[in-house]
Amino acid sequence: MEKIFKTLDEQISILQGKGLIIPDEEYAKEILLRENYFFLSGYRHLFLSENGRSFLPGTTFNELYSLFYFDRHIRNILFRNLLIIENNIKSIMAYHLSMKYGIREEQYLNPKNFVKDADRKRQVNDLLKKLKRQIRINGGQHQATQHYIEHYGYIPLWIVVKILSFGIVGEFYSILKAEDQRAVAEFFRAKAENLLIWLPILANYRNLCAHEDILYEHKAQRPIMDSHFHQQLEIPRVDGEYIYGKDDLFALIIILKRMLRADDFYLMMENLDYEINLLAGKLKTIKIDKVLDRMGFPTNYKEIVRL
Predict the structure, then answer these.
(1) Structure pTM?
(2) Which of 1, 189, 286, 291 has the most CB within a 10 Å radius?
(3) How far apart are the C-alpha atoms of 113 and 129, rounded to whole Å?
(4) What value does the mean pLDDT take over residues 1-18?
C-alpha cells in the first residue's frame, strides 16, 4: 500500500488514536515538524502495550519525546568519544607503519607489507586500490594533503589517515601482517583478535551517531568476546551466554573502557549517568530499568568505572 502524506493535525490524530495523551497539541506539532514524525515514532516501542498497536495507558507525548531527547544526548556523548578513538587508532597505525615501512605512498602501501594468504590476495589488492583512489580524489580537497603534494610530491600516512573513513581504517587493519596487528593492539593492552572485532563495531556506531539514527537499542553486527568485565559485573547468563554487553550498547561501553584513557572514560560515564538519571525523572508509564534493559545496561553499570 502506498504511503500518503499526513498533515501535522493528522499525525496528532494518529498518535491520539493509539492512546497517546497529548496535553499541548501546538507544542507536539512543533516537535513533529522539527524532528520528523517517522523518526520520533521510532521510540514508541517501549511504551506499547502487549498487542503492539496501542500505547500503555497514561503514556504522554512528553514521555515519548523525553526518550527521543535522551537518545540524542547519549548519541552526542558517545560520538565525541568515538571520534577520540578514531583519531587514536589512525595516529597509532600511521606511526607504526611509517616507522617500519617508510613515509612515501609506494612504501607504506607496498603489497609486500600485508598478509600473504593466497585466498586474501584479492582483498589486499582491492583495498590498496581503494586507498589509492581515496588519496587521489580527496588529496586535493584538504589543506594538509594539498600542502604535502605541492611541497613534497607525496602524502605521508599520518596525513593520509585524516581523509580515510573509520570503516576503511578498520579494513586496513584487517590486512596488516599479524605482527603489525599485534603492535597496534598492544597500545590498547588488547589482543589483535579483539581489535579485529571491535573496529567494525566502532565504525558502525560512529556512523550511526553521525547520522542521528536510533542509538539506545542498536545491535552490533557481531558480539564481542566475553571479558572479565562481564564476570566482575556478575551479568546473568541464559543458556551459557551473557544477556548484556555482547552485541548491545553496553558492549560498546566495554570496548570504550578498553580503548579510552581512564579520565576520558570516567567523564563519559559521568555524562551518561547524568542523562540516565534525568530521563528516569521524566518517565511515568515505564521505569528506567526497561530502558536500561533495552540498552543492554546491567543495573550496576556504573561499577565498570572502577574495574
Answers:
(1) 0.95
(2) 291
(3) 15
(4) 93
Name the phi and psi angles at 304, rounded to 5.
Answer: -65, -25
Residue 257: alpha-carbon gap to chain centroid: 14
CB atoms within 10 A of CB 253: 22
| The predicted structure's pLDDT at residue 1 | 73
Count Cβ atoms within 10 A of the Cβ of residue 73 and give its class: 0-12 exposed, 13-18 middle, 19 or more buried. middle
> Where do runs of H (alpha helix) occur along the chain?
8-17, 25-35, 37-41, 61-101, 105-108, 121-139, 143-152, 157-160, 166-174, 178-187, 192-210, 228-232, 249-259, 262-282, 288-295
pLDDT, one tens digit per residue, over 286-305 is 999 999 999 999 999 999 99
Cβ distance 236 to 299 under 8 Å?
no
Q: Which of 274, 229, 281, 287 is nearest to 255 (CA)?
A: 229
Give me the residue label for grid cell 599479524: 178
**Other beta carbons less than 10 A from residue 30's beta carbon:** 12
247 DSSP assignment:
S
pLDDT of residue 134: 80
DSSP state of 48: B
For range 45-68, the mean pLDDT: 97
Helices 262-282 and 249-259 pack at an angle, to 10 degrees, of 150
